[in-house]
Design a protein that fits this description.
Blueprint (H helix, E strand, L loop, with lengths): L12 H5 L7 H8 L3 H20 L2 H22 L8 H12 L6 E2 L6 E4 L2 E4 L6 E2 L21 H20 L7 H6 L19 H17 L4 H12 L20 E3 L5 E7 L3 E7 L4 H10 L26 H22 L2 H9 L2 H14 L4 H8 L4 H8 L2 H10 L6
Parallel strand pairs: 1-4
Antiparallel strand pairs: 2-3, 5-6, 6-7
Helix pairs in contact: 3-4, 4-6, 8-9, 8-11, 9-10, 9-11, 9-13, 11-12, 14-15
Amino acid sequence: MKLKEPVPLYPSYIELRDFDFEDYPDLDKIFSSNPSWWLENFNWGKSFLEFTGRNKSIHTYDRFRNEIERFLLWVFIEKQKPVNELRKVDILDYADFCWQPPVFWIGTSNQERFKIVNGYSSANKDWFPYKIQAPKIQKKSAIIDKKKYRPSQQTLKSMFTALSVFYNYLMSDELCPGNPAHIARKDCRHFITDAQVKEVKRLTTVQWQYVLDTAVSMADEDQNFERNLFVIAALKTLFLRISELSERPNWSPMMQNFWQDEDENWWLKVFGKGRKLRDITVPTDFIPFLQRYRTSRDLSDLPYSGDSAVLVEKIRGQGGMTSRHLRRLVQTVFDQAYENMCQAESSTKALKLKEASTHWLRHTGASMEIERGRPLKDVSEDLGHASMATTDTVYVQSENKQRAESGKRRKVD
């Protein structure tokens, strides 16, 4: 079976652990009818992803799977040369390919890789290695021109990082003589030296107030929206990532993760990026939102040691909510806040509410705290940044604001 168009190669980590070609007849045909090095390279990728899934987060597994899958598909279909024989010039060819892949490699939405057909996992014909989407602000019905696809600088960096880690893994098993991805990175012509003023993706104080007021109003009118209000307030006030509120295979956030120290300070224990546990300070201002959410669930006013209630319960069924469901809760509030602000102010002033994602709330909360004068070190630790320099680079905009203010006074005459 000659492979002319890309097909998914690897399932989720849970399914990969029990992978058997008998369950994937499409893949079985591909690797049984092509050169033996195809199967060898596939197994190298499989071994690397099993290692990643076992030792890293699900997010890291998914990210590396996307990159290694694309790379191997290019190796099989386009380059037709084994991974261990590739050199710097080949990796630069791959970077060119990633910069402008053929349109039949590009999809316009997220799709599952495999579908169950007659009891077997079959490749989903609607899945593609690359994805281009219309900006969130545009209507869903907008026509998308796949020829306009270009990866962001961050996407390119992620690609080189994944390939470099993959080659290091192969080198450690003495399967490859070197790491061409590491060597090629500095010569990639698509990288741009960035000296721009960084724009923090956040809401203004007024926009945030509309979001909060909208969430409170919705919860006051219908108790079902107490969950939305709690999630909105937690993401912004506690600087949380959406994943830190969600149910995951290796972590289930519970109410007992809120705890009080001997000085009656409240903290929240979260399982964050890099598989690290950290404790976040919980401000007094947040406690009423926690209390009203618990009351809506017929729980006691405040959490206690051993409180096994899930942090954000599912709408239907048992257990916590996934990141996808949590994003829907936030989006519902964003959409209504946008409508409210358009009516009261203008669509121009409300525009960012149309563009905003859940992560904007984390940025909004941290930026506002720094502007209020809270020590950068304290904000950095609550954010879970490994280095205070990261917080300084992303959030501190005071010098740019001064520069912009002085720039306004320049004269034409």
